[in-house]
Specification:
Layout (H helix, E strand, L loop, with lengths): L1 H37 L2 H14 L3 H13 L3 H8 L9 H13 L3 H14 L3 H13 L3 H14 L5 E4 L6 E4 H16 L5 H14 L4 H15 L7
Antiparallel strand pairs: 1-2
Helix pairs in contact: 1-2, 2-3, 3-4, 3-5, 4-5, 5-6, 6-7, 7-8, 7-9, 8-9, 9-10, 10-11
């Protein structure tokens, strides 16, 4: 008799728990729809976090991490999906890791994921990102190869955003790739390639007159031309 009572108690508890879990799931699904409709990003994040606790789902985790990275919250994105490379990672998961790791100044780790994305879909956008990271890592030959691919495959309507000013702006991806090519050229031989690098920056600026970063780089290189060599004592 005692065993029967205990069994009924366990069954009742499990049933109540399942019912509560189901109700919570419906509640946060409705909450998610409402927050999304209102454009409340933090509300969407809260809803998805609760849903992942109640019923873990990798696609939802990837989407949550993407929302974090879109908001510039790179560490939270990485804490959500990790930093390990897994063969079964979705394109979205891989993209988030690439962007977030670049955002937290981990170019070597970010490059692994950008190159994986490039294997899956080789395009000029990814070529730019890979070249940028390789330039940071002083892999100049690798950066040049990626830039050459990008310039060969870039289309007129492709754009690239820049954020060094208070007001972000876009330039053509061709101009952005030309800008990177000038930096690679200069780094390969700062003395012999100085004039060529400046000319290439002029080409990038001619493509997009609002290309502030290219103008700053040109000013810096022009200043090097006017620098007086250090006197020998």
């Amino acid at each position: 008799m005692k065993k029967l009572v205990l069994l009924l108690t366990v069954i009742t508890t499990l049933s109540a728990t399942a019912q509560t879990k189901s109700e919570l799931l419906k509640h946060f699904e409705s909450y998610y729809v409402e927050m999304k409709g209102q454009g409340d990003v933090q509300g969407v994040i809260n809803a998805m976090t609760h849903l992942n606790v109640i019923k873990p789902d990798q696609k939802r985790m990837d989407t949550l991490a993407y929302i974090y990275v879109s908001e510039g919250r790179n560490l939270e994105a990485l804490n959500t999906i990790g930093i390990d490379k897994v063969a079964t990672d979705s394109d979205l998961n891989t993209e988030v890791k690439a962007i977030a790791l670049k955002g937290v100044n981990q170019p070597e780790r970010a490059l692994v994921f950008y190159e994986e994305l490039f294997k899956r879909d080789s395009n000029a956008y990814l070529a730019y990102e890979i070249a940028d990271l390789k330039l940071q890592l002083q892999d100049l030959a690798g950066a040049k190869a990626s830039i050459d691919f990008g310039l060969t495959n870039v289309k007129p309507d492709m754009k690239r955003g820049f954020y060094e000013t208070q007001r972000p702006y876009e330039v053509s991806l061709k101009a952005a790739l030309t800008y990177l090519k000038s930096l690679v050229l200069f780094n390969m031989n700062p003395t012999d390639n100085l004039d060529k690098a400046i000319t290439m920056l002029d080409e990038a600026i001619a493509m997009d007159a609002n290309f502030n970063l290219a103008k700053l780089s040109k000013d810096a290189l022009v200043a090097k031309k006017t620098e007086k060599p250090a006197s020998k004592n």
